[in-house]
Every structure is written in structure tokens, then in C-alpha cells.
Amino acid sequence: MKERLEWLDLLKGIAIIAVIIDHTYGVLYKNLLIQYHTGFSVALFIFLAGVTSAMSLSRGNFIKFYKKRSFSIIIPFVIATALFSFLNHKPFISSLLHFNATGPMYFIAFFMELILIAPLLNKLPYYFLILIIPLSIYLNKFSFIPFLWGGGNKLFGGTFLLMFYLGFLFYKNIEFFNKFRFKLINIIIPILLLIFFEYFKLFPTIWHNPPYTLTFLYTFSIFWLVFNLRLNYQNKILKFISYCGRNSLYIFLYHPIIFSIIRWFR
After folding, report:
1. How far apart are CA 21 and CA 41, in angstroms?
2. Whole-number percent of the chain with pLDDT over 90
3. Is 0.90 topped by the overall pTM?
4. Is 25 helix (H, G, I), strand (E, B) or coil?
């Protein structure tokens, strides 16, 4: 269990750092190519959220799951909305209900929808994947939620639903995947795929939210590579990335506030 948590924290850290890099475009850098390389960030985070949700539900019933998730998501979200509303002179209640105190809040809207149906997804056998795939594509095309953009604009995040469910399937079959970890072929294949993406410039562009086919391939190439590497998790850099991963939701919610405070005092 400890080893699994280490790779999980590291990947969550990679995802949230990529989110920060994405959001600092135009502030810390202006090279659009750098931003394009962060296109896996939210998709990876949602996949890992599926993994952690399956893990939590395997340890207790759905009531405990909802209670834990409610305190860890809703309260920080309300506090972040209040702070951002104050700093930007926005109406608090409206910002809270519309999830638009700041742009990244769209994520919380569809993430809470996914958490709501997580116990149901946890009960579905693997062959329901043949239904989840067309359902997520349908939601991508035909569902619409006003005031939000990206995944928040779609019911259950559109194709983020598929990414979330794949996280459940991965965790349920973790023993099978662990048997093949650290094999050289499992390192070579994702590296070759990433080189292929790089050479032909196929990495997801800014329109990767909700994810499309290339986003899925790009995201899982990064995931599979990191998952299969023999890493020294006591390395100071990796420990810092893992620390970010353990606090990824708070970083996601509060980093726009830090930017606002900086601009406020200029």
C-alpha cells in the first residue's frame, strides 16, 4: 500500500504542477508550446481521482466516502470562493452557486458531480465500459451547463466521466498491473509514444478540456511511464512533487487567490 501511495502522490503532484504552469501562461511565460505540453494535467488528475475514490470506497461504505469528500472539497471551495469574491468585488452567493468566482472553479462543478456518482461507478463491472464510452461522448456533444466552460460545461464533465471510470478499473485490477511493473517494455512504449507526439506535434492543444482521443493517449503515456519507473521517492525533488500531490486540491483552489493578491498589491 505504501508503494502505491508514493506513485499516486507523485503523479498527482505532476498533474497539479502542470495545471499551475498552464495557468501562468502570459504571466510567467509566453511560449504557447509550453502550455500545450500541460494538456494532460486535468485528465490525469481526474483519472487519479478515480483511483483514490475506488481506494476510499474499498475501505468503507459510501456514507463515509461522502462525508470525507464533503469536508475535503466543499469547505475549501466555499472558503476559496469567499476570499476570491472579496478580492475581486464579486457577489459571493452568485459566485458560489455558479462556480465562477475564478476560472478554475469550473473544475469543482463537474468534479463534485463525479464524486456524487462514484459509489455507483464503483459497483459497475468492467464490461460497463462499453456503455460508459458512448455515454461520455454523448454528454460531451449534447449536454450543456451555462456559466461554465470546459468540463464544467458538460454533465459529469463529458469525457472526463470515462477518465474517472478508468481510474476505478485500474485500481480494481491493481494487482494485475503490479505484476508487470518495471518491465523494460513498459518504459520503452510510453517513451516512444511521447516521442511520436513530440515529433508530429500531436500533444493536446488548449482545447483538451474535456479530453479527446489524443488527450487520453498523451495522458496515459505519461501515467504509464511514471508508474513503471523505479524511482527514489526519498529524493528531495520527488518528495516536493509528492507533497504538492497530497495537497493538490488546495493548491488548485487557492493558487488563483495568490495571483489576485499579487496583482492587488501592485
Report:
1. 10
2. 73
3. yes
4. strand
